[in-house]
Amino acid sequence: MRSSYFLIILILTVFSCDWTIKSTHQDAIARVNSTFLTKDKIDAGLFDGLSVQDSLIQIQNIINDWASQQLLQDGALLNLEAQKQKEFETLVKDYKRDLLTSAYLEAMTKQNLDTIISNQELELAYKQNKELFYLKEDLIKLRYINHNLSMSNSNEIKRRFKRYNAEDRAILDTISLQFNSFFLNDSVWINSNQVISKIGPLQKGFNKVLLKKQNFIQLKDSLGLYLMQVKDVLEIGQQAPLAYVTPTLKQIIINKRKLKLVNKLKSEIVNDALRNKKFEIYE
Predict the structure, then answer these.
(1) By the 8 A CB rule, do 67 and 32 touch?
(2) Who has the most CB within 10 Å: 18, 79, 101, 178?
């Protein structure tokens, strides 16, 4: 990396010496009218891993790109109407102002925003926004195991899987490394399409069996035996459960807090400026 850096400096030095018009800038490598491209504007990282020949080509491309942009800018300044240029300058100033104020408000918001959300707040937000949370996909609570057909303890696994008391859960979790795939947390809602994408036989026309509550399903294919126990189902058009939409609710609450905090900060800034005579309104 160090030798590459010195190589680039050497090449840039060669470029900077080959001029018809000499520059008063010792580190300049190109000029367009009265504007100079200097060595410190070239990112040495662009040449990592390049040969000398490729580095020369890369530098030439960089110089040519810079020159074309500079010539176009100079041409625009020379030929565009003064009013149009003034409009652009106003746009640039407005854009810079918006960037600065947005970044400042964002930094102040991060420092002062309360991100802790209680269960009571989630429940209230859920009640107030229920009309937003009708399902557009089927949800399901289930557990499943996929294991090789040749497993000697297949019957025991099936028995424990179906009964699924505390001891069964602990044992199945302990031997889960023997399974091809599994999902044992049947207390959470998941998109039925996610289940179908994980279980091969369900992609071959058996997916409808998923949408039956309290349903035990056993399927097999070349990858092994699939055991599925459906605990609960919610279909498209039904009310989405609170647990499933909690991430969205949290974002809604945080966004409302942000808006309220931003308005408060703006008001405090103005009032503080008025008190300190930094801001005055003339009648």
Answers:
(1) yes
(2) 178
Residue ranges per structural domain of the chain? 2-79, 119-129+240-275, 135-234
Please name the residue that has the structure tokens 């640039």.
Answer: 92
Residues 6+ apart with CB under 8 A from 231: 141, 142, 143, 186, 213, 214
Q: pTM of the full predicted structure?
A: 0.67
CATH topology of domain 135-234: Chitinase A; domain 3 (3.10.50)
**Per-residue pLDDT tens over the stretch 68-123:** 999 999 999 999 999 999 999 999 999 999 999 999 999 999 999 999 999 999 99
Q: What is the dihedral of CA 186, 190, 191, 196, to 10 degrees?
A: -40
Phi-psi region of 43 (alpha: psi -120 to 50; beta: other; left: phi over 0): beta
210: which DSSP letter?
Answer: G
Other beta carbons within 10 Å of 231: 14
First to last CA, the chain: 65
Distance from C-alpha of 191 to C-alpha of 30, rounded to nearest angstrom = 59
C-beta separation of 162 from 184 below 8 A = no
Pairing verdict, β 35-38 and 190-191: unpaired
Give SS3 for 27. Answer: coil
29-79 pLDDT tens trace: 888 998 998 888 888 888 788 788 888 888 889 899 999 999 999 999 999
For the CA atoms of 14, 17, 18, 21, the dihedral, rounded to the nearest 10 degrees, stands at 160
* Per-residue pLDDT reduced to its tens digit, 225-263: 999 999 999 999 999 999 999 999 999 999 999 999 999
Q: Nearest to residue 231, comparing CAs of 161, 170, 136, 171?
A: 161
Place of tokens 């949370």: 133
